[in-house]
Design goal:
Number of strands: 8
Strand content: 15-25%
Mean pLDDT: 93
Radius of gyration: 18 Å
Shape: globular
Structural class: alpha/beta
Length: 266
């Protein structure tokens, strides 16, 4: 398949398109505008593990169009800041927060989270990052900065959907990383780097089944709307994303690339 495609510009830039909304409704248990492997039931479990309440200040890194951030605030009462590098996502998130009456407690900022975060030390009680850490370089420096902006006793929860747990070919790596920058790490690497940054690892969960399931549902829902999506994405764009989703499903179903959730405390 030819050149790379920017999934996120396409997704967030056409968030309200009927075909895109239908695909999300069919892929997830509830449409939160997400473009990852998380469903609402899993998100609620992460909120619980982070011990969020009305006193909590939360940072979501890689918030996309902000659906999880807004639901986090609405269900837990926490105050939240979502950051993302995609302007379409941030625009959509900000508009939705205003429409839902959440602007007093939820805000969104256009930030490259791969660089030092523009927040003071100990600014947040919790940090959440779902299926986005793999897009950020310099993992050791990233964890050190997250440790800096987290308050003492604060909790960090992130999912990494491309931990290498089996044999992966160069072609599979190319397709799996065809929609942007990706950082692949071997099993055990995140735990080691978290501890080096000063975190205490509390729990690690294998949540690869969610990635295998969602990728297949997403691929199949898109295939059923082929003509409408080609009108939005073009033939090449449609085919690249279908191949991407098919490869995600194969690699996760065969446990050659796995998705893990990491819970740590400062």
């Amino acid at each position: 398949m030819g050149s790379d495609v920017n999934l996120y510009d396409t997704h967030y830039g056409q968030l309200a398109a009927a075909a895109q909304a239908e695909v999300r409704h069919e892929t997830y248990d509830e449409d939160l505008g997400q473009s990852s492997w998380i469903m609402l039931a899993e998100a609620r479990e992460w909120f619980r593990l982070l011990r969020l309440d009305a006193e909590s200040r939360v940072l979501e890194v890689g918030c996309g169009s902000g659906g999880i951030t807004r639901r986090l605030a609405a269900e837990t009462g926490a105050s939240a800041v979502g950051v993302d590098i995609n302007p379409h996502g941030i625009d959509a998130a900000t508009a939705s927060a205003a429409r839902e009456g959440l602007s007093p407690r939820v805000s969104f900022q256009l930030i490259d989270a791969g660089k030092r975060l523009p927040f003071a030390d100990a600014s947040f009680d919790a940090i959440f990052c779902n299926d986005a850490i793999n897009h950020l370089p310099r993992r050791a420096e990233l964890f050190a900065d997250w440790h800096r902006v987290l308050s003492p006793g604060g909790r960090l929860l992130f999912t990494d959907p491309i931990v290498v747990t089996g044999a992966v070919t160069s072609e599979e790596i190319r397709i799996r990383s065809s929609i942007g920058f990706y950082l692949f790490v071997p099993a055990g690497c995140n735990e080691r780097l978290l501890e080096q940054a000063g975190f205490v690892v509390q729990e690690i969960r294998d949540v690869t089944d969610a990635e295998a399931s969602v990728s297949a549902r997403w691929r199949d829902a898109r295939a059923r709307r082929r003509d409408a999506l080609i009108a939005l994405e073009g033939e090449h764009g449609f085919q690249v994303l279908q191949q991407f989703l098919d490869t995600v499903h194969t690699l996760s179903a065969e446990r050659r690339l796995s998705r893990f959730a990491y819970l740590a405390s400062r």
